[in-house]
Amino acid sequence: MYRSLAVSVLLMGACAAWGQEKPTVIPPPTLDGPRAAASSEKAVLAGGCYWGTQGVFEHVKGIKRVVAGFTGGHNDEDGGAESVMITFDPKVISYGQLLRIFFSVVHDPTQLDRQGPDVGPGYRSDIFYMNDEQRRVAQAYVAQLDRAKVFPKPIVTRVDAFPGFNPVGLDQQDFMIKNPHLDYIEVNDVPKLASLKRLFPTSYRALPLQYW
């Protein structure tokens, strides 16, 4: 049954919304990680509600798994950031390419402690690096984009050491796949998939991965 936004939020829990972030065309990173250093690597990114972040990256080629959860805590109230842990094949997609999609399609990196209508530190923009190479790539890319002024305001994305990750329950995994017609998803997240397909056609996969 089609529900109003207010009712949907009360019943489904978390991430109330009205509005969406606009996609931005940005250049690739000038500093990036090696494309074939290993068969598998992990990246942890926080860019607002994990429903949409997981949903977008599940449509990216070269990604093996995307898990929604909290980094640095167990929920929004204890300092945790809504985020995703991405397992990817660096022979297919580089860490810098993941960040390019993250900055241009997944969220607005100029919004401090919020994404659209979702407000609070739990919705912050944050890159949690797993090693020194990821730290260098992330910091260099933020500086590169700020110098180029590709966004109308300065980037507020944090670059922090990975403090630990806590997956959410199965009812919250693959949420966009399971609830494509929920008001929140239709308004905020489905347009991101269209932007991903338009801006990154060679990286887009029509059939998404699924956590479960």
Describe the structure.
By secondary structure, the protein is α+β, with helices and mostly antiparallel strands. It contains six helices and eight strands; from the N terminus they run αβαββαβββαββαα. The protein has a six-stranded mixed sheet, with helices on one face. It has a two-stranded antiparallel sheet with strand order 4-5. Helix 2 (50-57) runs parallel beside helix 6. It is globular. Residues 1-20 have low confidence and may be disordered.
Fold blueprint:
Elements: H1 5-12, E1 41-47, H2 50-57, E2 63-71, E3 81-88, H3 95-106, E4 114-115, E5 118-119, E6 125-129, H4 132-148, E7 158-161, E8 165-167, H5 175-178, H6 183-199
Parallel strand pairs: 6-7
Antiparallel strand pairs: 1-3, 1-6, 2-3, 2-8, 4-5
Helix pairs in contact: 2-6
Side by side, the strands of the main sheet go: 7-6-1-3-2-8
Annotation, overall tally of beta strands:
8
Protein structure class: alpha+beta
Overall number of domains: 1
Shape: globular
CATH class group: Alpha Beta
CATH superfamily: Peptide methionine sulphoxide reductase MsrA
**Distance N terminus to C terminus?**
24 Å
Contiguous uncertain segments of 5+ residues: 1-20
* CATH-derived architecture: 2-Layer Sandwich
Rg on CA atoms, Å: 16 Å
Order of helices and strands: HEHEEHEEEHEEHH
CATH domain topology? Peptide Methionine Sulfoxide Reductase, Chain A
- Tally the helices: 6
Mean pLDDT: 89
The major beta sheet can be summarized as:
6 strands, mixed
Strand content: 15-25%
The percent of residues in helical segments reads 25-40%
